[in-house]
Amino acid sequence: MPKEPFVSFNIKTLSHMIKHHIDRAICRSTPGDVPPPTGVQGFIIGFIAHHDGHDIFQRDIERELHIRRSTATGILKLMEKNGWIIREPVPYDARLKKIILTPKALNHHHYIMSLLDQTEAKLVRNISNKDLAVFNRVIEQMKKNLEATP
User: Fold this and answer.
1) Which residues are 27's β-sheet partners?
2) Domain for residue 2, yes or no?
3) What crossing angle do the helices spanning 69-81 and 58-65 adopt, rounded to 10°?
4) How many angstroms from the chain centroid is the CA of residue 8?
5) Segments forming the whole domain that contains residue 89
6) Does residue 15 belong to any structural domain of this protein?
7) Domain presence at residue 75
8) Is the dihedral of CA 57, 63, 66, 70 positive or negative?
9) Of 31, 42, 46, 106, which is least packed with CB atoms within 10 Å of its CB?
10) What residues contact residue 71 under an 8 Å CB cut-off, 6+ apart?
């Protein structure tokens, strides 16, 4: 009797399929003169967009992504060069520059959120709410199992 595939393999395969689906859509939506934001750049755009109304600084991104200052500097310089962000001094501390999304980045963020909603709808199509609840409980338990394992 054939053994069922590893759960971890199925999760990894599904994760790759979702990533490729989203990446293809992002590449189709971004003008050819500017490369689409990388995954980490997209995460930064989302992070800033979800903290609308709050000043976000490089140190916040370093903390959120658990990256070094030099890494964050390189990513943000490239994002600025490609027109995704601008850095603006704040009046209360001349050393600090808040990071602001450009209209292009905000439009991209709204598109990505719409794309994520569409992808989610496609993923759960023909799956009952009961089955989705079981799936989510199982996934949460798997995450707890991994966190508890040294």
Assistant:
1) none
2) no
3) 120
4) 22
5) 7-119+126-148
6) yes
7) yes
8) positive
9) 31
10) 62
d(CA 99, CA 76): 9
The tens digit of pLDDT for each residue in 56-112 reads 999 999 999 999 999 999 999 999 999 999 999 999 998 999 999 999 999 989 988
Q: Spell out where 7-134 has E strands.
A: 85-90, 93-101
User: Which tokens is 20 given?
Assistant: 């490729």
Question: Helix 58-65 to helix 39-49 angle, to the nearest 10 degrees?
Answer: 120
Directed axis angle between helix 39-49 and helix 103-124, to 10°?
100
What number of residues does the chain have?
A: 150
Q: What is the CATH number of the domain that holds 85?
A: 1.10.10.10
47 within some domain? yes
Could you give the number of structural domains in the chain?
Answer: 1
DSSP-derived 3-state class of residue 150: coil
pTM equals 0.71
